[in-house]
Structures are given as structure tokens and as C-alpha cells.
């Protein structure tokens, strides 16, 4: 049985302030908990129901899941339909960002993405297309927000995220920079080469004006229908897919 203090701690991690104070974030769901347990992240505790515990097959023997009743588990879960598995995971110390890591690969740069579902989908999409790291502006939603973690379906355990002042980063780059803008060259006419920064903007405002002068190539997804705009996660998927398509074509 959970104490009130334990319940209070776990539920407080829904908020960034308390995630920072405690250095912990929440991972929910059998698949996601399994993915993080099999990664470099450090698991502090895992709470499960008896039914879910039987499905956690890849949990290291050093981690002993804490069994809870369905009623107690529901008190700590943030999901409408809890899956019976929740892990408290340590937030890793910020790593030094090596500018050399941008060379010979494509990297996503997110400028003020605010919706947790969008960020989670972008992280999951990045992993699907082999993009290993994402650079986020400091005002992009926290990657350890439970809704972000949930939407990644475990991909956050493998894709590296860095939060930094992206204006300075983009201005200092010698490698190509591509910005997703309404006015630009068609994405289907762009040769993305073997490296570059792919810059995606805020859901409502796009890429911030002060960043645009530093973008070497403005890229647009041609509109055929009447929709006013594309969701940033959808647009990012199209960019990742087109980059991957061209790389695969060259490899043939």
C-alpha cells in the first residue's frame, strides 16, 4: 500500500518544477517501462499491478517491481486507461553538447514546439527514420513531461535531446541549414545531402523571425488542397521521410 507521501511525490512529477526538484520523471505503460529499463536511463522504482507484472519480461533482476492493487495504482497513474506499469526514472545530468556531433548527419532543430503530443510524435518519428538527436530551443516543451514520454512510446530512451539557445547554434553553423517555411523551395526539389540542420517552427507562429536570416535554404511542403497549414509533427514526418527517401535512392 502506498503512503500519502509516496502518492504526493509521484503525482507531483506531472509538473516540471517538481521533476527538477526531485530529479525524476514518470514513464507509464508496459512497453515504455520495458524500453527504459533496457536503456542507459536509471530506474529508481517500478510500480505494477499483478497482471502487468507478468508482462514485464525484460526488467533487470536488480529491479524489484513494487506490487500495487488496481485501486492504489490508479491513484498514481495519469492515464485514463492505466496499463498497470509505472516507473520513476532519474533525469540524467545535462551532457556537454559537442558541435562536431552535427557533422555527417541530419539533425532536427525544434523552435518553440509547445504541444507535448507533437514533441512526443516527433521524437518517435526521428527514431523511425534514423535521426539520433534533436536540438530544442529553451522554450520547447520539456521532454520529460509525462505526455511527451507517453507519446514517444519508448523512443525517448534512445533519441538524444539537447536544449540550448538555437539562434546562436544556427548562426555558428557551416553545415547546411534548412527551415520549414510557407515560402520557400519545394521539398521535392531539395537535395538535402549527407548533413544539415532541419529547423521546424512553433505550432502557431512557425520559425521565429530573428532565426530566419540564418537559414540558408527555405523549404516548403507544396499545398495542393485548401488546408491553411500542417501540424508540426506531420510536417516533420514529411521532412524526415523525404530525406530518408533521397538517401536510400542514392544508396541503390
UniProtKB/TrEMBL annotation:
Tell me the GO BP annotations in alphabetical order: methylation
Start and end residues of each RNA 2-O ribose methyltransferase substrate binding domain:
26-95
- Which residues span the membrane? none
Extract the InterPro entries matched here: Alpha/beta_knot_MTases (IPR029028), MRM3-like_sub_bind (IPR053888), Ribosomal_eL30-like_sf (IPR029064), rRNA_Methyltransferase (IPR051259), SpoU_MeTrfase (IPR001537), SpoU_subst-bd (IPR013123), tRNA_m1G_MTases_N (IPR029026)
**What are the recorded GO MF terms, alphabetically?**
methyltransferase activity
User: Does this UniProt record's set of keywords contain Coiled coil?
Assistant: no
Per UniProt, which keywords does this protein have? Methyltransferase, Transferase
**What PANTHER family does this protein's entry cite?**
RRNA METHYLTRANSFERASE 3, RRNA METHYLTRANSFERASE 3, MITOCHONDRIAL
Family membership, please give it.
Belongs to the class IV-like SAM-binding methyltransferase superfamily. RNA methyltransferase TrmH family.
Q: What is this protein called?
A: TrmH family RNA methyltransferase
Please report the organism this UniProt entry assigns to the protein. Answer: Sphingobacterium tabacisoli
Q: What does UniProt list as this organism's lineage?
A: Bacteria, Pseudomonadati, Bacteroidota, Sphingobacteriia, Sphingobacteriales
Amino acid at each position: 500500500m502506498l503512503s500519502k507521501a509516496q502518492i504526493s511525490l509521484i503525482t507531483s512529477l506531472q509538473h516540471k518544477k517538481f521533476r527538477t526538484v526531485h530529479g525524476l520523471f514518470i514513464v507509464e505503460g508496459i512497453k515504455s517501462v520495458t524500453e527504459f529499463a533496457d536503456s542507459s536511463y536509471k530506474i529508481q522504482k517500478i510500480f505494477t499491478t499483478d497482471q502487468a507484472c507478468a508482462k514485464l519480461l525484460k526488467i533487470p533482476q536488480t529491479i524489484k517491481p513494487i506490487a500495487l492493487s488496481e485501486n492504489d495504482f490508479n491513484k498514481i497513474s495519469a492515464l485514463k486507461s492505466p496499463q498497470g506499469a509505472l516507473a520513476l526514472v532519474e533525469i540524467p545530468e545535462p551532457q556537454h553538447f559537442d558541435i562536431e556531433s552535427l557533422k555527417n548527419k541530419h539533425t532536427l532543430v525544434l523552435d518553440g514546439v509547445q504541444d507535448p503530443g507533437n514533441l512526443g510524435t516527433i521524437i518517435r518519428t526521428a527514431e523511425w527514420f534514423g535521426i539520433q538527436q534533436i536540438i530544442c530551443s529553451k522554450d520547447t516543451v520539456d521532454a520529460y513531461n509525462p505526455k511527451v514520454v507517453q507519446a514517444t512510446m519508448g523512443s525517448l530512451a534512445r533519441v538524444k535531446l539537447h536544449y540550448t539557445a538555437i539562434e546562436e547554434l544556427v548562426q555558428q553553423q557551416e553545415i547546411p541549414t534548412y527551415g520549414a517555411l510557407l515560402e520557400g523551395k519545394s521539398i521535392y526539389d531539395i537535395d538535402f545531402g549527407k548533413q544539415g540542420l532541419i529547423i521546424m517552427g512553433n505550432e502557431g507562429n512557425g520559425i521565429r523571425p530573428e532565426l530566419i536570416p540564418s537559414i540558408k535554404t527555405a523549404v516548403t511542403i507544396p499545398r495542393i488542397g485548401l488546408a491553411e497549414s500542417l501540424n508540426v509533427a506531420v510536417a516533420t514526418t514529411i521532412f524526415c521521410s523525404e530525406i530518408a527517401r533521397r538517401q536510400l535512392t542514392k544508396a541503390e
